[in-house]
Design a protein that fits this description.
The protein has 13 helices and 2 strands. It is an all-alpha fold and about 290 residues long. It is globular, with a radius of gyration of 23 Å.
């Protein structure tokens, strides 16, 4: 039988969701409305003069080669962070799920990175790759690989991708581990008796049963790559060298707070918000069809 909670008063349900609704209105809808309003205006840096310009700010953005290039940078960065983070997290979850002795210690160590602030994660990995004290850079040089993220754009991109994956790996790990532990062992044992190899068991039984978790994490990781990596980029590379790591969310900050182009920055915010909404809709419309609940 389906159980439902019945409220005697009509106002109590609204009162219970009021705090969450207030947070959504204040921290999402109000800023989004402000960005949309400012994106159709043209005003000076001090807000003394204001003029309605319609879609001119958007036209100017799409005529800017550096802004169009940031789309490519963001697409590459987001794909590497989302796919790489999910793959590595799933691998760690599978390995941790097989550990018998000191399993709690391994799981606790893998969860710790999530408690680190994004800016701290950026500085931490920057120091490990920085000269002359970075341990990873020293190891790379010893292996004959010259590392310089200050001059090489690919090296800088690799730095922020690694830092972003490491920062969010704990979140993915927790969900994958919970998903693995919810799979009935009888299915795995039956496949083993039938002679299925570990690789075959994983792709035909384990991974399909993890598809709801994987789909959820894919959506979350895409949003994470678009929005929550700003602090890592700002702390590690500041969008450099040149503009090689200037992803869309960092360009919004740079143009608005450093270049003082408030209205152009607002237009970029609107475009970024629409891109994330569109990607989420596409994932739910097409990717979810391959999910087995």
């Amino acid at each position: 039988m389906e159980k439902r909670v019945l409220f005697k008063s009509g106002w109590l349900p609204w009162a219970l969701i009021a705090p969450q609704m207030a947070v959504i209105l204040v921290f999402f809808f109000w800023p989004a409305g402000q960005a949309l309003y400012q994106s159709v205006l043209q005003e000076d840096a001090f807000g003394a003069t204001r003029e309605f310009v319609g879609l001119d700010n958007f036209k100017r953005l799409f005529a800017d080669p550096s802004y169009l290039d940031s789309f490519r940078i963001t697409a590459v960065f987001s794909a590497l962070v989302a796919v790489g983070g999910l793959a590595l997290s799933l691998l760690l979850a599978v390995m941790a799920n097989r550990v018998v002795r000191a399993a709690g210690v391994y799981k606790t160590l893998l969860i710790w990175p999530y408690a680190v602030a994004p800016v701290v994660a950026g500085v931490l990995w920057l120091m490990m790759f920085a000269s002359p004290y970075g341990v990873i850079r020293y190891a790379l040089i010893e292996m004959g690989f010259e590392w310089n993220h200050l001059l090489n754009g690919r090296h800088a991109m690799a730095l922020i991708v690694i830092a972003s994956i490491w920062k969010y790996i704990s979140y993915n790990f927790l969900f994958f581990l919970a998903g693995l532990q919810s799979i009935p062992h009888s299915l795995i044992e039956a496949a083993t008796i039938d002679g299925a190899t570990p690789w075959r068991r994983f792709w035909t039984i384990v991974f399909p049963l993890l598809s709801p978790t994987t789909f959820f994490l894919l959506v979350i990781n895409v949003v994470h790559a678009f929005f929550e990596t700003f602090a890592i980029v700002d702390a590690a590379t500041s969008g450099g060298p040149g503009k090689d790591t200037a992803i869309l969310v960092y360009k919004v900050y740079y143009d608005g707070f450093k270049a003082m182009d408030v209205n152009g920055s607002a237009a970029q915010s609107v475009i970024l918000m629409l891109i994330v909404i569109a990607l989420t809709v596409v994932q739910f419309k097409f990717v979810e069809k391959k999910v087995h609940y």
